[in-house]
Amino acid sequence: MKTLQKTLLALAVGSLVSVGAQAAVSYGSGYVGQPYVGIKAGQFDLDYSGADKPTAYGVYAGYNFDPNFGMEVEYLGSDDADYRGGDIDAKTYGAYGTYRYMFPNTALYAKGKLGVARTEVKATGAVPVSYNGKDKDTSLAGGVGLGYAVNSDFSVEAEYDKLGSDADLWTVGAHLKF
């Protein structure tokens, strides 16, 4: 990874951690920030000709500064999927700023996120020639989704993420606020 990319990723994660450490800060509106943790599963859509889509699974954590704005970090890995007589798998790490729009008089909300993600894809294949490689990409990433607040402490979400130019990710997940 290039030095600039490492520096930007370290600054983004460091900022998120320092902000998360201030979880009990009360804002002028009386809103007290709310941290959450969750799990998600779905499917990677990788730009590899002839590759099956690996199943994704992972964890995420976030902090809502107010009802609309927050931040989130996540890690997702995958199982091995078939690729040209071999296997392909992926993993991604991300740090994002988030925005939630609560639809009036419902528990539904729309979610958008924008940040930095590192995606690593490892592929081995035998057809038509032997291949063993690893692609790594750190880039701007973002996503959109829909969520439903089951109650004040538990929500479920469906999400689509664009992870650079070679990977898309579709997930469903649930998180617990505390």
From TrEMBL:
Signal peptide: 1-23
Name the UniProt record assigns to this protein: Porin family protein
Claim: Cytoplasm is one of the keywords in the record: no
Domain Outer membrane protein beta-barrel residues, every copy: 10-172
UniProt keyword annotations, A-Z: Signal
Lineage: superkingdom: Bacteria
Pfam families referenced in this protein's UniProt entry, alphabetically: OMP_b-brl
InterPro entries (UniProt xref): Beta-barrel_OMP, OMP/PagP_B-barrel
Entry keyword annotation includes S-adenosyl-L-methionine: no
